[in-house]
Bifunctional UDP-N-acetylglucosamine 2-epimerase/N-acetylmannosamine kinase
Amino acid sequence: FPPPPPPLIQEVYFKNLSKQKQKEVMEKNGNNHKLRVCVATCNRADYSKLAPIMFGIKAEPQFFELDVVVLGSHLIDDYGNTYRMIEQDDFDIHTRLHTIVRGEDEAAMVESVGLALVKLPDVLNRLKPDIMIVHGDRFDALALATSAALMNIRILHIEGGEVSGTIDDSIRHAITKLAHYHVCCTRSAEQHLIAMCEDHDRILLAGCPSYDKLLSAKNKDFMSIICMWLGDDVKTRDYIVALQHPVTTDIKHSIKMFELTLDALISFNKRTLVLFPNVDAGDKEMVRVMRKKGIEHHPNFRAVKHVPFDQFIQLVAHAGCMIGNSSCGVREVGAFGTPVINLGTRQTGRETGENVLHVRDADTQDKILHALQLQFGKQYPCSKIYGDGNAVPRILKFLKSIDLKEPLQKKFCFPPVKDNISQDIDHILETQSALAVDLGGTNLRVAIVSMKGEIVKKYTQLNPKTYEDRLELILKMCVEAASEAVNVNCRILGVGISTGGRVNPREGIVLHSTKLIQEWSSVDLRTPVSDALHLPVWVDNDGNCAALAERKFGHGKGIENFVTLITGTGIGGGIVHQHELIHGSSFCAAELGHIVVSLDGPECLCGSQGCIEAYASGIALQREAKKLHDEDLLLVEGMSMKKEEVVSAAHLIQAAKLGNTKADSILRTAGTALGLGVVNILHTMNPSLVILSGVLASHYVNAVKDVINRQALSSVKTVDVVVSNLADPALLGAASLVLDYTTRRIY
């Protein structure tokens, strides 16, 4: 794919919205008209999601005017007067609305909604926003959405389509039906919105805005923050963060669960930071339970009303465990791989990473205590289910595309939904892609590869000779490619690395390398790349990757048993048996280049004699070409070489084509050696297909077929032998490592 990419490549949800189209939208809205955006925040949790968007809007004053409305628990002293953190972030608060009716039952929540509905119309009449941004599923947000909808103000709803427990589900879906535009965090949420008949063109799969901050936060100085909240004697991974809220549909049971949690934490005897619960029916009773058990004065506990989000990120990122029923535990904390114990039913239905252990019900503290013993101190892979760190740029671009001249009345896409999905899904989803790395003997290549096997963008550099320089260049190229992925509409699902040598794919470690790649043994590739990009990483041998590329994109698609042979600088390959790649007990399967076809053949780089690679590899052909050249037997009529030109296998092939009988004899011997190796493979694995890949494949295919006809058992002679039609099997195979795994998990 020739760089730079054509200008028609846009983010998928803007496929029909080119820069010219955006300009037209601006002109329709009025050349000098800025989009007036009202962001209303109700509590500390929703502000952590809205703040990144607010910063983005504030940074583009040529396009937007921002009005901030603060209400709900932000203005309550018992919950830390968290409106102050909005002021500390240098946002001007246009209006403060005291909307919480104090009480301990469900009626107080209803009265709070009613009070907000009484106060909001006056504020919205004065502000006259073009659009209101509403987050989540709290009762305060329902009042905001109801007011805006009835006053004909467009609503952008953040985090719609998700599923959880309690009354929050109903509130979230009610806001969805009132909202005109939707920003969702996961593919499942996006599919739920479509199933709820929302207009496909008004749904943006952006990821969670808080992940934009989370994924860049962990490297900051954190020890001072830990010491400030938990004490000077606390170490990383040796404390717990607890955050538990009442479940409004079953208050008594949630209070009992909270009591058991505190009992378990007391018994577990680790330093614990306990945050006060949300403003919900039952919150006061939970606070009474804390005080009854002496949590505020217990030497192992620190009980606080509020922790600023930036500091909270550092606390959970370096905790030994987080426990409770907050959505933060199943969503944001996964970005750091911190272990989480999710209690009760409040988050039932949420998508979670492998770091989350669920305790659905508990009659005694023992079950919770056992969960703490299982989870505390573990470290899990970083999870990016809810975002990739690029949500805000997508949301801002989405806001700029809104045409205020379009009718305000919502449109619903009623069933049949399935037909509409097949037509329109590519217009609202970004291209799911992989970052593919090919570590060759000469070049280091990184590419963005789409789910369909298209190489969207490719970067190539000479492969450094030393370990340190090579790893530094890999990280630099991967970071650059990941940043560019946003501009070319690609959502990176993970990183796949193809490298020569013997690889332990389970651990992501290169055990032993080929002589072509120096200083490349016992190298952990997964950890540094994953840490730098916050993405899952897969590593495998280049021959195995070539087989995976054929299985997903090439001749091997749908074939149960096949073998791929790479004919290039060396000889390698991969074996697929019953649709699965074979690695072997010591990860040495499919070293097909080292099948011995002659006991007294030429010496191989592996130290043995008579290997296929010693006859048929590019290095072997180059060796024979140099011998002929030294004896003045290589060049024939029609050939010429410059003095400084290095003799290569290509010269041998050219000479053979021009009638050089000695060169032709060498190629026939090489083809015969490769053919004998293939016969051995047929008699061992009995595949239905052999795929020859690499630069020499087309020169060997006929010779291999001839040897099979002469030497193979009749029962295997029917095997198909074909030349690969893949332009870049190494990169496509590295991408397949990612795409095969992630599509299995998603679907």
